[in-house]
Amino acid sequence: MNKKQVVITGMGALTPIGPDVKTYWNSLKEGESGIGKITRFDVSEYSSQIAAELKNFDPEDFGISKKKRRRTDDFIIYSLVAAVESIKNSGLNMGKEDPYRCGTIIGSGIGGLNTIEKDHTKLLKKGARRVSPFLIPSMIIDMAAGEIAIKYGLKGPNYGVVSACASSAHAIENSMRMIQAGDVDVVVTGGAENSLSPLGLAGFCSLRALSTRNDDPQSASRPFDAARDGFVIGEGAGIIVLEELEHAKKRGAKIYAELVGHGATADAYHITAPQPDGKSGTAAMKTALIDSGLNPEDIDYINAHGTSTLLNDKIETKVIKNVFGTNSEKLPVSSTKSMTGHLLGAAGAVELIACVKTINDGVVHPTINYENPDPECDLDYVPNEARDMEVNAALSNSLGFGGHNVSLVVKKYSG
Q: Does residue 262 carry a catalytic annotation?
């Protein structure tokens, strides 16, 4: 069976460096950091006291009422905000679509942790009768997809995806497969996350996974730099509209790029640490290339997972070398997380949007805070300044606790 072609016709982003795709992309090109001291709760007893919080975010500015906000966890709110931008950007008119041919698949690594914490406090202090009836619908990860489907009447396949920091990349991969198989015409997909809570921060601190560069937050996320000391938690959402090519052409949609390849593997090694030899990560990238029909030399840019942790950056560098060989020496690689922090389950989608903008604008965004070369991280990380260059095909990596590896390949749509 011939696979259907899959294109991207809509994009929406809510990030610590911009509440929409345009602002987010401009901030990336300018090398602006969204990281600062945590303002949401007292962090004086935490080893890491910094995060990439959304700035001046008021859901009412996006048409979400106070009542809705009280009943709904922020990760769901974030997904709705990004979905509104993405669907508007796509020009989709659901009144003209078969709703059963339109799906919604959204990923989140942790889901409604803030809601769980708040209602657990109510349970302990005020008793079981004071726990909100909206606790369960706010905490479960599939509700981001459910709420988007309710808002737009999308009646095709609908579910959530959970694979830690690879969640939204897996969601996009699953969506791509459905369209390729001819099961649906359109999928609204991506991811959302807000695990910045007292318990969430404490857990990551106990893992010793976070940067403790508390006195200099904007330089804390420094992927591939020899002085890196951990990642920085971020929050937000990235939602894209994937569409079958002929369906998009028939309705006259603007096509931003073609999604051409995907690969997914498991390390089967450790709950948090990457596989030392990088074989499974290598297999994911090679599978994505084979699926795309492209050769390694056809890839012009890699958006790295690039977390700013000691092990991830070293192993990912090794994996890139395994796949691209001597070509890796001249292949631009950059980390969006150097500016946004780590959006966990939303990272893959937000970073794929960066790849699409790179292809559309001919600009590779930098990896900021790259100051101290690491002999084990010796690729071209586009240090500190954006680079103008033609990019026809890009690969985006997403890795997650539990050993999840996902690689996606996107290329310029040639018509």
A: no
pLDDT digits (tens, 9 = 90+) for 15-57: 999 999 999 999 999 999 999 999 999 999 999 999 999 999 9
Is residue 365 within 8 Å of residue 354, measured between CB atoms?
yes
**Active-site residue, from 262, 342, 365, 404:** 342
Catalytic hit among 170, 247, 262, 305: 305
- Please say if 404 is a catalytic residue: no
pLDDT digits (tens, 9 = 90+) for 159-179: 999 999 999 999 999 999 999
pLDDT score, position 415: 81
The answer to whether the CB of 184 falls within 8 A of the CB of 101 is yes
pLDDT in tens, 133-160: 999 999 999 999 999 999 999 999 999 9
Q: Is 102 a catalytic residue?
A: no
Q: Contact, 245 vs 48, CB < 8 A?
A: no
CA neighbours closer than 13 Å in the CB half-sphere of residue 65: 3
Q: Tell me the β-bridge partners of 11.
A: 240
Report how far Cα 408 is from the mean position of its chain's Cα atoms: 12
